[in-house]
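Shipment paperwork, digital attachment
Item: protein structure file
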Amino acid sequence: MKREAPHILCINPWIHDFAAFDFWAKPLGLLGLAAMLRENGIRVSFMDCLDRFHPRAGSRVKVLADGRGPYRKTVIPPPRGVEETGKRYFRYGIEPEWFKQDLLAMEQPDMVFVTSLMTYWAPGVRETIACIKAVFPDVPVVLGGIYATLCTDHARRNSLADEVVPGNGEEKLPDLVLRYTGFSFDPKGEPGNLDTQPYPALDLISHLSYAPILTSRGCPFSCEYCASSFLEPRFRRRSPESVFREICHWHTERGVTNFAFYDDALLIDADRYAIPLLEMLIDADMDLAFHTPNALHIREITQGTATLMFKAGFKTIRLGLETTDFSSARTHDTKVKANEFHQAVAMLKAAGFSHDQIGAYLLCGLPGQGLAEVKASMVEVEKSGITPVLAFYTPIPHTPMWEEAKTASRYDLEKDPVFSNNALFPCLARGVPRIKTISQLKKIAI
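Attachment content:
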Protein backbone atom coordinates (compact mmCIF):
# COMPACT_ATOMS: atom_id res chain seq x y z
CA MET A 1 0.00 0.00 0.00
CA LYS A 2 1.38 3.41 -0.97
CA ARG A 3 2.23 5.64 1.98
CA GLU A 4 0.28 8.86 2.43
CA ALA A 5 2.08 11.90 1.04
CA PRO A 6 4.32 13.47 3.69
CA HIS A 7 4.37 17.08 4.85
CA ILE A 8 7.70 18.82 4.23
CA LEU A 9 8.57 22.21 5.66
CA CYS A 10 11.02 24.41 3.72
CA ILE A 11 12.79 27.18 5.65
CA ASN A 12 14.89 30.18 4.65
CA PRO A 13 17.13 30.92 7.69
CA TRP A 14 18.12 34.10 9.46
CA ILE A 15 21.12 36.16 8.42
CA HIS A 16 23.74 37.00 11.05
CA ASP A 17 25.96 39.79 9.73
CA PHE A 18 27.28 43.31 10.20
CA ALA A 19 25.05 44.54 7.38
CA ALA A 20 22.34 43.07 5.14
CA PHE A 21 19.66 44.43 2.82
CA ASP A 22 17.08 42.80 0.59
CA PHE A 23 18.77 43.33 -2.79
CA TRP A 24 16.23 41.21 -4.69
CA ALA A 25 17.18 38.19 -2.57
CA LYS A 26 14.94 35.13 -2.52
CA PRO A 27 15.86 31.45 -1.83
CA LEU A 28 15.24 30.42 -5.41
CA GLY A 29 16.90 27.00 -5.07
CA LEU A 30 14.78 26.05 -2.06
CA LEU A 31 11.60 27.27 -3.73
CA GLY A 32 12.52 25.24 -6.80
CA LEU A 33 12.72 22.11 -4.65
CA ALA A 34 9.41 23.02 -3.02
CA ALA A 35 7.81 23.22 -6.47
CA MET A 36 9.18 19.81 -7.42
CA LEU A 37 7.91 18.25 -4.19
CA ARG A 38 4.49 19.76 -4.69
CA GLU A 39 4.35 18.65 -8.31
CA ASN A 40 4.89 15.09 -7.12
CA GLY A 41 2.01 15.11 -4.65
CA ILE A 42 3.90 16.08 -1.49
CA ARG A 43 2.42 18.65 0.90
CA VAL A 44 4.76 21.62 1.27
CA SER A 45 4.94 24.53 3.70
CA PHE A 46 7.35 27.46 3.60
CA MET A 47 8.66 29.75 6.32
CA ASP A 48 10.95 32.68 5.67
CA CYS A 49 12.97 33.93 8.63
CA LEU A 50 13.80 37.00 6.50
CA ASP A 51 10.15 37.84 5.74
CA ARG A 52 9.99 41.64 5.62
CA PHE A 53 6.19 41.43 5.44
CA HIS A 54 5.54 39.05 8.34
CA PRO A 55 2.01 39.61 9.77
CA ARG A 56 3.47 40.72 13.12
CA ALA A 57 5.76 43.28 11.47
CA GLY A 58 2.96 45.82 11.24
CA SER A 59 2.24 48.21 8.40
CA ARG A 60 5.42 50.31 8.52
CA VAL A 61 7.43 48.13 6.14
CA LYS A 62 9.65 50.14 3.81
CA VAL A 63 9.38 49.08 0.17
CA LEU A 64 11.37 50.84 -2.54
CA ALA A 65 9.89 51.35 -5.99
CA ASP A 66 11.91 48.40 -7.30
CA GLY A 67 10.63 46.04 -4.58
CA ARG A 68 13.75 46.03 -2.40
CA GLY A 69 13.91 47.12 1.23
CA PRO A 70 15.59 46.75 4.63
CA TYR A 71 15.25 43.66 6.79
CA ARG A 72 14.13 43.86 10.39
CA LYS A 73 17.22 43.59 12.59
CA THR A 74 18.24 42.94 16.19
CA VAL A 75 21.68 43.47 17.76
CA ILE A 76 23.31 40.20 18.83
CA PRO A 77 26.83 39.32 20.05
CA PRO A 78 29.36 38.90 17.21
CA PRO A 79 30.99 35.51 16.58
CA ARG A 80 34.14 34.75 18.51
CA GLY A 81 37.20 36.12 16.75
CA VAL A 82 35.66 39.13 15.02
CA GLU A 83 34.94 41.30 18.07
CA GLU A 84 37.93 43.50 17.16
CA THR A 85 35.94 45.27 14.48
CA GLY A 86 34.01 47.26 17.04
CA LYS A 87 31.02 47.15 14.69
CA ARG A 88 27.57 46.07 15.77
CA TYR A 89 26.45 42.62 14.65
CA PHE A 90 22.83 41.77 13.88
CA ARG A 91 20.29 39.05 13.39
CA TYR A 92 18.38 40.04 10.26
CA GLY A 93 14.82 38.81 9.94
CA ILE A 94 11.78 38.10 12.05
CA GLU A 95 11.82 37.85 15.84
CA PRO A 96 12.69 34.38 17.22
CA GLU A 97 9.45 34.36 19.20
CA TRP A 98 7.47 34.89 15.98
CA PHE A 99 9.26 32.00 14.37
CA LYS A 100 8.59 29.74 17.35
CA GLN A 101 4.90 30.68 17.42
CA ASP A 102 4.58 30.00 13.68
CA LEU A 103 6.18 26.58 14.09
CA LEU A 104 3.90 25.70 17.01
CA ALA A 105 0.83 26.77 15.06
CA MET A 106 1.49 24.51 12.09
CA GLU A 107 0.95 20.80 11.54
CA GLN A 108 4.12 18.94 12.51
CA PRO A 109 6.13 18.20 9.36
CA ASP A 110 7.64 14.84 8.49
CA MET A 111 10.93 16.48 7.60
CA VAL A 112 12.41 19.97 7.24
CA PHE A 113 14.58 21.38 4.47
CA VAL A 114 16.76 24.39 5.35
CA THR A 115 18.72 26.27 2.73
CA SER A 116 21.90 28.31 3.14
CA LEU A 117 23.44 31.15 1.17
CA MET A 118 26.60 33.07 2.11
CA THR A 119 29.17 30.86 3.81
CA TYR A 120 29.73 33.43 6.57
CA TRP A 121 26.01 33.38 7.42
CA ALA A 122 26.57 29.97 9.01
CA PRO A 123 25.69 31.24 12.54
CA GLY A 124 22.21 32.22 11.33
CA VAL A 125 21.72 28.74 9.90
CA ARG A 126 22.69 27.16 13.22
CA GLU A 127 20.32 29.38 15.21
CA THR A 128 17.48 28.58 12.81
CA ILE A 129 17.99 24.83 13.08
CA ALA A 130 18.29 25.07 16.88
CA CYS A 131 14.86 26.75 16.98
CA ILE A 132 13.35 24.10 14.72
CA LYS A 133 14.69 21.31 16.91
CA ALA A 134 13.42 22.99 20.07
CA VAL A 135 9.87 22.78 18.67
CA PHE A 136 10.16 19.56 16.62
CA PRO A 137 12.92 17.54 18.33
CA ASP A 138 12.11 14.31 16.49
CA VAL A 139 11.72 15.74 12.98
CA PRO A 140 14.76 15.27 10.71
CA VAL A 141 16.35 18.46 9.41
CA VAL A 142 18.23 18.42 6.10
CA LEU A 143 20.54 21.31 5.17
CA GLY A 144 21.46 22.21 1.60
CA GLY A 145 22.48 25.29 -0.36
CA ILE A 146 25.67 27.25 -0.93
CA TYR A 147 27.18 27.09 2.57
CA ALA A 148 26.37 23.37 2.74
CA THR A 149 28.13 22.84 -0.60
CA LEU A 150 31.20 25.03 -0.15
CA CYS A 151 31.82 24.29 3.54
CA THR A 152 30.36 20.81 3.88
CA ASP A 153 32.60 19.60 6.70
CA HIS A 154 32.03 22.75 8.75
CA ALA A 155 28.26 22.47 8.21
CA ARG A 156 28.26 18.83 9.32
CA ARG A 157 30.14 19.71 12.49
CA ASN A 158 28.33 22.91 13.41
CA SER A 159 24.92 23.39 11.77
CA LEU A 160 22.96 20.93 13.98
CA ALA A 161 21.33 19.46 10.85
CA ASP A 162 20.67 15.71 10.78
CA GLU A 163 22.06 15.60 7.27
CA VAL A 164 24.02 18.05 5.13
CA VAL A 165 23.50 17.65 1.40
CA PRO A 166 26.05 19.39 -0.85
CA GLY A 167 25.50 20.01 -4.53
CA ASN A 168 22.39 19.81 -6.66
CA GLY A 169 19.44 18.94 -4.45
CA GLU A 170 17.08 18.15 -7.30
CA GLU A 171 18.90 14.95 -8.20
CA LYS A 172 18.98 13.77 -4.57
CA LEU A 173 15.42 14.73 -3.67
CA PRO A 174 13.65 11.38 -4.27
CA ASP A 175 16.18 9.46 -2.19
CA LEU A 176 16.04 11.94 0.69
CA VAL A 177 12.26 11.88 0.85
CA LEU A 178 12.19 8.07 0.66
CA ARG A 179 14.79 7.59 3.41
CA TYR A 180 13.21 10.02 5.86
CA THR A 181 9.48 9.58 5.15
CA GLY A 182 9.09 6.29 3.30
CA PHE A 183 7.31 8.06 0.43
CA SER A 184 8.43 7.09 -3.06
CA PHE A 185 8.04 9.16 -6.22
CA ASP A 186 9.51 9.40 -9.70
CA PRO A 187 10.23 13.05 -10.55
CA LYS A 188 8.33 14.50 -13.45
CA GLY A 189 10.09 16.24 -16.30
CA GLU A 190 13.24 15.42 -18.23
CA PRO A 191 16.49 15.28 -16.23
CA GLY A 192 18.64 18.29 -17.06
CA ASN A 193 15.94 20.00 -19.12
CA LEU A 194 15.16 23.28 -17.34
CA ASP A 195 12.08 23.88 -19.49
CA THR A 196 10.33 20.83 -18.01
CA GLN A 197 10.80 21.90 -14.39
CA PRO A 198 7.99 23.69 -12.57
CA TYR A 199 8.31 27.37 -11.77
CA PRO A 200 9.83 27.99 -8.33
CA ALA A 201 7.08 28.12 -5.70
CA LEU A 202 7.13 31.90 -5.34
CA ASP A 203 3.41 31.71 -4.56
CA LEU A 204 4.41 30.44 -1.08
CA ILE A 205 5.90 33.88 -0.34
CA SER A 206 3.44 36.01 1.63
CA HIS A 207 4.09 39.29 -0.18
CA LEU A 208 5.86 39.20 -3.54
CA SER A 209 7.24 42.70 -4.09
CA TYR A 210 9.52 41.37 -6.87
CA ALA A 211 10.22 38.04 -8.55
CA PRO A 212 13.63 36.49 -9.23
CA ILE A 213 14.04 34.96 -12.69
CA LEU A 214 16.64 32.43 -13.75
CA THR A 215 17.08 31.84 -17.49
CA SER A 216 20.10 29.57 -17.06
CA ARG A 217 22.03 27.52 -14.52
CA GLY A 218 25.79 27.78 -14.17
CA CYS A 219 28.24 29.96 -16.06
CA PRO A 220 30.49 29.29 -19.08
CA PHE A 221 33.31 31.30 -17.46
CA SER A 222 35.58 30.45 -14.52
CA CYS A 223 36.57 33.69 -12.81
CA GLU A 224 39.25 33.07 -10.20
CA TYR A 225 37.28 34.60 -7.33
CA CYS A 226 33.93 32.94 -8.17
CA ALA A 227 32.54 29.50 -7.22
CA SER A 228 29.80 29.39 -9.84
CA SER A 229 31.43 26.61 -11.87
CA PHE A 230 31.88 24.53 -8.69
CA LEU A 231 28.30 25.04 -7.54
CA GLU A 232 26.87 24.42 -11.03
CA PRO A 233 29.40 22.46 -13.14
CA ARG A 234 27.10 22.35 -16.18
CA PHE A 235 25.89 25.40 -18.06
CA ARG A 236 22.22 24.86 -18.93
CA ARG A 237 19.67 27.22 -20.41
CA ARG A 238 15.93 27.64 -20.64
CA SER A 239 14.19 28.55 -23.86
CA PRO A 240 13.18 32.21 -24.27
CA GLU A 241 9.55 31.07 -24.55
CA SER A 242 9.70 29.32 -21.16
CA VAL A 243 11.20 32.38 -19.45
CA PHE A 244 8.64 34.67 -21.05
CA ARG A 245 5.75 32.47 -19.89
CA GLU A 246 7.07 32.52 -16.32
CA ILE A 247 7.33 36.32 -16.29
CA CYS A 248 3.77 36.56 -17.61
CA HIS A 249 2.62 34.06 -14.98
CA TRP A 250 3.90 36.01 -11.98
CA HIS A 251 2.73 39.31 -13.44
CA THR A 252 -0.77 37.95 -14.11
CA GLU A 253 -1.21 35.77 -11.02
CA ARG A 254 0.53 37.93 -8.38
CA GLY A 255 0.71 41.37 -9.97
CA VAL A 256 4.51 41.43 -9.96
CA THR A 257 6.07 44.29 -11.91
CA ASN A 258 9.71 44.06 -10.77
CA PHE A 259 11.84 41.13 -11.92
CA ALA A 260 15.48 40.45 -11.04
CA PHE A 261 17.56 38.24 -13.33
CA TYR A 262 19.78 35.95 -11.25
CA ASP A 263 21.77 34.80 -14.28
CA ASP A 264 25.56 34.83 -14.46
CA ALA A 265 25.47 34.85 -18.26
CA LEU A 266 22.25 36.54 -19.41
CA LEU A 267 23.60 37.92 -22.70
CA ILE A 268 25.70 34.92 -23.79
CA ASP A 269 24.60 33.71 -27.25
CA ALA A 270 22.10 36.57 -27.30
CA ASP A 271 20.80 35.84 -30.81
CA ARG A 272 19.31 32.55 -29.59
CA TYR A 273 18.31 33.49 -26.04
CA ALA A 274 18.28 37.09 -24.78
CA ILE A 275 17.19 38.82 -27.98
CA PRO A 276 14.11 36.61 -28.61
CA LEU A 277 13.10 37.08 -24.95
CA LEU A 278 13.55 40.84 -25.10
CA GLU A 279 11.51 41.05 -28.29
CA MET A 280 8.68 39.05 -26.69
CA LEU A 281 8.69 41.37 -23.67
CA ILE A 282 8.58 44.46 -25.88
CA ASP A 283 5.70 43.07 -27.95
CA ALA A 284 3.74 42.14 -24.79
CA ASP A 285 3.96 45.75 -23.53
CA MET A 286 3.30 44.84 -19.87
CA ASP A 287 5.06 47.87 -18.34
CA LEU A 288 7.50 45.82 -16.26
CA ALA A 289 10.84 46.70 -14.65
CA PHE A 290 13.89 44.40 -14.93
CA HIS A 291 17.11 44.39 -12.91
CA THR A 292 20.47 42.63 -13.34
CA PRO A 293 22.09 42.36 -9.87
CA ASN A 294 24.38 39.50 -10.98
CA ALA A 295 26.00 41.72 -13.63
CA LEU A 296 26.15 41.56 -17.42
CA HIS A 297 29.20 40.51 -19.40
CA ILE A 298 30.49 43.73 -20.94
CA ARG A 299 31.78 42.07 -24.10
CA GLU A 300 28.29 40.78 -24.91
CA ILE A 301 26.68 44.24 -24.97
CA THR A 302 25.94 45.51 -28.46
CA GLN A 303 23.93 48.50 -29.59
CA GLY A 304 21.16 46.08 -30.51
CA THR A 305 20.97 44.38 -27.11
CA ALA A 306 21.30 47.70 -25.27
CA THR A 307 18.40 49.18 -27.23
CA LEU A 308 16.22 46.11 -26.71
CA MET A 309 16.92 46.07 -22.96
CA PHE A 310 15.93 49.71 -22.67
CA LYS A 311 12.72 49.19 -24.65
CA ALA A 312 11.86 46.05 -22.64
CA GLY A 313 11.98 48.00 -19.37
CA PHE A 314 15.37 47.26 -17.84
CA LYS A 315 15.95 49.74 -15.01
CA THR A 316 19.07 48.49 -13.21
CA ILE A 317 22.12 47.64 -15.29
CA ARG A 318 25.16 46.21 -13.53
CA LEU A 319 28.38 45.55 -15.42
CA GLY A 320 30.97 42.99 -14.35
CA LEU A 321 34.00 45.26 -14.71
CA GLU A 322 36.09 44.32 -11.61
CA THR A 323 38.88 46.86 -12.30
CA THR A 324 39.98 49.55 -14.75
CA ASP A 325 43.57 48.34 -14.55
CA PHE A 326 43.65 46.94 -18.09
CA SER A 327 47.43 46.60 -18.22
CA SER A 328 49.18 43.34 -19.04
CA ALA A 329 51.02 43.63 -15.73
CA ARG A 330 47.79 43.19 -13.76
CA THR A 331 48.12 40.43 -11.16
CA HIS A 332 44.59 39.03 -11.50
CA ASP A 333 42.71 38.23 -14.67
CA THR A 334 40.59 40.85 -16.36
CA LYS A 335 37.48 40.20 -18.43
CA VAL A 336 37.55 43.21 -20.74
CA LYS A 337 39.78 45.72 -22.45
CA ALA A 338 39.48 49.46 -21.92
CA ASN A 339 37.90 50.10 -25.31
CA GLU A 340 35.32 47.35 -24.74
CA PHE A 341 34.22 48.89 -21.45
CA HIS A 342 33.92 52.41 -22.86
CA GLN A 343 32.09 51.17 -25.96
CA ALA A 344 29.57 49.27 -23.82
CA VAL A 345 28.91 52.35 -21.68
CA ALA A 346 28.47 54.50 -24.79
CA MET A 347 26.00 52.01 -26.29
CA LEU A 348 23.95 51.80 -23.09
CA LYS A 349 23.77 55.60 -22.90
CA ALA A 350 22.84 55.85 -26.57
CA ALA A 351 20.02 53.38 -25.89
CA GLY A 352 18.62 55.75 -23.25
CA PHE A 353 20.01 54.51 -19.92
CA SER A 354 20.96 57.20 -17.40
CA HIS A 355 24.00 57.55 -15.13
CA ASP A 356 21.99 56.32 -12.12
CA GLN A 357 20.78 53.20 -13.93
CA ILE A 358 24.20 51.93 -14.99
CA GLY A 359 26.69 50.71 -12.42
CA ALA A 360 30.00 48.89 -12.78
CA TYR A 361 31.04 46.40 -10.12
CA LEU A 362 34.60 46.96 -8.89
CA LEU A 363 36.30 44.32 -6.78
CA CYS A 364 37.77 45.61 -3.56
CA GLY A 365 39.86 43.84 -0.95
CA LEU A 366 41.48 41.23 -3.18
CA PRO A 367 44.65 39.53 -1.92
CA GLY A 368 47.54 41.95 -2.38
CA GLN A 369 45.34 44.68 -3.84
CA GLY A 370 46.28 48.21 -2.91
CA LEU A 371 43.84 50.98 -2.10
CA ALA A 372 45.28 53.09 -4.92
CA GLU A 373 44.07 50.60 -7.57
CA VAL A 374 40.51 50.73 -6.24
CA LYS A 375 40.56 54.52 -6.06
CA ALA A 376 41.82 54.76 -9.63
CA SER A 377 39.09 52.40 -10.85
CA MET A 378 36.37 54.37 -9.09
CA VAL A 379 37.60 57.63 -10.58
CA GLU A 380 37.79 56.09 -14.07
CA VAL A 381 34.26 54.71 -13.85
CA GLU A 382 32.97 58.09 -12.69
CA LYS A 383 34.72 59.74 -15.65
CA SER A 384 32.88 57.38 -18.01
CA GLY A 385 29.61 58.82 -16.72
CA ILE A 386 28.27 55.84 -14.79
CA THR A 387 28.24 54.74 -11.14
CA PRO A 388 31.04 52.74 -9.48
CA VAL A 389 29.64 49.96 -7.28
CA LEU A 390 32.12 48.43 -4.86
CA ALA A 391 31.96 44.65 -4.53
CA PHE A 392 33.94 43.68 -1.44
CA TYR A 393 35.83 40.45 -1.94
CA THR A 394 34.73 37.32 -0.08
CA PRO A 395 37.26 34.45 0.00
CA ILE A 396 35.40 31.35 -1.23
CA PRO A 397 36.54 27.72 -0.94
CA HIS A 398 36.93 25.73 -4.18
CA THR A 399 37.86 28.82 -6.21
CA PRO A 400 41.25 29.36 -7.91
CA MET A 401 41.91 32.33 -5.61
CA TRP A 402 41.22 30.43 -2.37
CA GLU A 403 44.81 29.39 -1.63
CA GLU A 404 46.07 32.88 -2.30
CA ALA A 405 43.37 34.29 -0.04
CA LYS A 406 44.30 31.95 2.81
CA THR A 407 47.92 33.07 2.58
CA ALA A 408 47.02 36.76 2.48
CA SER A 409 44.38 36.76 5.20
CA ARG A 410 45.02 37.76 8.79
CA TYR A 411 42.29 35.26 9.77
CA ASP A 412 42.28 31.46 9.72
CA LEU A 413 39.85 31.09 6.82
CA GLU A 414 39.86 27.31 7.02
CA LYS A 415 38.76 27.32 10.65
CA ASP A 416 35.47 29.15 10.33
CA PRO A 417 33.62 30.72 7.38
CA VAL A 418 32.67 33.75 9.52
CA PHE A 419 36.23 34.98 8.93
CA SER A 420 35.54 35.27 5.19
CA ASN A 421 32.91 37.96 5.74
CA ASN A 422 33.70 40.74 3.28
CA ALA A 423 32.85 43.34 5.93
CA LEU A 424 36.07 42.28 7.67
CA PHE A 425 38.21 42.90 4.56
CA PRO A 426 39.84 39.54 5.37
CA CYS A 427 42.57 39.86 2.73
CA LEU A 428 43.37 43.52 3.17
CA ALA A 429 47.12 44.07 3.11
CA ARG A 430 48.66 43.85 6.56
CA GLY A 431 49.18 47.20 8.19
CA VAL A 432 46.30 48.87 6.30
CA PRO A 433 43.58 50.01 8.75
CA ARG A 434 40.23 48.48 7.75
CA ILE A 435 38.02 51.28 9.08
CA LYS A 436 40.19 53.95 7.44
CA THR A 437 40.06 52.07 4.14
CA ILE A 438 36.27 51.89 4.10
CA SER A 439 35.99 55.55 5.08
CA GLN A 440 38.30 56.65 2.26
CA LEU A 441 36.46 54.59 -0.35
CA LYS A 442 33.08 55.94 0.74
CA LYS A 443 34.34 59.52 0.32
CA ILE A 444 35.31 58.78 -3.28
CA ALA A 445 31.95 57.14 -3.99
CA ILE A 446 29.92 60.17 -2.84
